[in-house]
Amino acid sequence: MKDLFQLADSLKDLKEWKKQVDEERKEVSSKIEAVEESLSQVMIEEEMQSFNRGGMMYYLNTKLYASAIPERKEALFSALKEEGYGDLVYETVNANSLAAFVREQVEENEDELPQWLEGLVNTYEKTSLGMRKGK
Question: What is the dihedral of CA 8, 11, 13, 15, to 10 degrees?
Answer without folding.
Answer: -140
